[in-house]
Amino acid sequence: MEDTLFLAQLLGSVSIILAVVIILRRKLIVHVFSEFVNNRALAFVVGILEVIAGLALVIKHSTWDSTLETAITIFGWLLLLEGIFYLFVTRRILRKVIKWLDNKSAYYFFALLYLVLGVYLAYVGFGLNI
């Protein structure tokens, strides 16, 4: 359970910080992802790093016993799948995904989803009683 709480604290804190940046700095984030599409070497390196992080979570913490453990396990699987996606996706498909995320509704939906996941993980991980 110590590993689960640590991962909840870590992933929750990072998710909250990134979600707030994503929400407040939309133009910057869209620009960063547009540049990301044009730099295949960067996309490949990010893909490798996400595969490593995702595999580490899946191998170390593939537990479905509680809601918290399931959320962390799903986080790991999504990270792994996203990394594999970046390794194999073509520039054309990646452009379509980025263009789709440029839609304000989709953009803010995923940003808020990321924020909610982060708040949940941090709340449970730190044992907060607000």
Molecular structure report:
The protein is mainly alpha-helical. The chain has one domain (2-124). It contains six helices and no strands. It is globular. The mean pLDDT is 91.
Please render the helix and strand layout as text.
Layout: H1 2-24, H2 26-38, H3 40-60, H4 67-88, H5 91-101, H6 104-125
Question: How would you sum up this structure in a few lines?
Answer:
The protein is mainly alpha-helical and 130 residues long. The chain has one domain (2-124).
Terminal CA distance: 22 Å
Please provide the count of β strands.
Answer: 0
Specify the overall morphology: globular
How many domains? The number is 1
Helical segment count: 6
Outline the biggest β-sheet. Answer: none
Whole-number mean pLDDT: 91
Give unreliable regions as ranges: none
Strand content: under 5%
Structural class: mainly alpha
Elements, N to C (H/E): HHHHHH
Radius of gyration: 16 Å
Properties at a glance:
mainly alpha
